[in-house]
Write a sequence for this structure.
């Protein structure tokens, strides 16, 4: 067996005073870029400070004028009934009760609808047309802004049907925003609460992108908290 030994004479000799040139990826930053960067940094900080001035001013006015009022028990127990704009007095009782009533009405309407719809989509919808339409509508409602939902209920409930502006109209607008959230949470809870080894069919856009030949619903089996996704083409 022969071993190739490099001869010292063939190896390049480097003088101790000779500089070795090394290639660098980044070049030196020019003075113009440094000055521009510092100017942009100063401008950003100055803009933030200017934006904080009115915010701190409003916060100071709110605390200085409202702290003594909110510490009084009468402010929490009195409402604005019979109090005009130019008259001092009243309290937050109407706002607190109105919020609680609207929250109860919204929950009573949206929780049963959302939970039942989520169970239907997970367990029974499959690839039916109704399931696809329902999923499509849930995706649309998820991205609806609150002002759009409020304008829709106002035009339908107040303008078209002629009902008065009330907390019920506000609750209906909140239902449009709350139902898709409950449906998605029901879908996630239904998958995570399955025992080990059980299977459930869920809508999986990731699987559809991974395998274009798979249906938009794939089989998911749960083994000790881990989700194993499979389809008819990949197993």
């Amino acid at each position: 067996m022969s071993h190739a030994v490099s001869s010292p004479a063939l190896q390049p000799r480097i003088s101790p005073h000779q500089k070795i040139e090394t290639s660098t990826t980044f070049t030196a930053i020019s003075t113009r870029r440094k000055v521009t960067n510092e100017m942009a940094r100063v401008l950003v900080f100055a803009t933030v400070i200017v934006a904080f001035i009115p915010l701190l001013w409003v916060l100071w006015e709110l605390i200085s004028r409202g702290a003594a009022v909110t510490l009084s028990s009468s402010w929490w127990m009195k409402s604005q009934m019979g109090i005009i704009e130019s008259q001092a007095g009243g309290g937050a009782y109407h706002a607190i009760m109105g919020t609680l009533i609207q929250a109860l009405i919204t929950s009573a309407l949206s929780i049963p609808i959302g939970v039942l719809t989520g169970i239907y989509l997970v367990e029974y919808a499959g690839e039916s047309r109704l399931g696809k339409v329902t999923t499509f509508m849930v995706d649309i409602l998820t991205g609806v802004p609150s002002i759009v939902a409020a304008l829709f209920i106002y035009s339908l409930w107040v303008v078209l049907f002629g009902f008065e502006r009330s907390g019920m109209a506000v609750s209906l607008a909140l239902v449009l925003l709350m139902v898709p959230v409950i449906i998605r949470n029901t879908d996630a809870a239904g998958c995570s609460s399955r025992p080990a080894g059980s299977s459930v069919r869920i809508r999986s856009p990731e699987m559809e992108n991974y395998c274009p030949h798979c249906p938009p619903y794939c089989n998911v089996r749960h083994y000790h908290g881990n989700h194993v996704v499979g389809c008819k083409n990949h197993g």
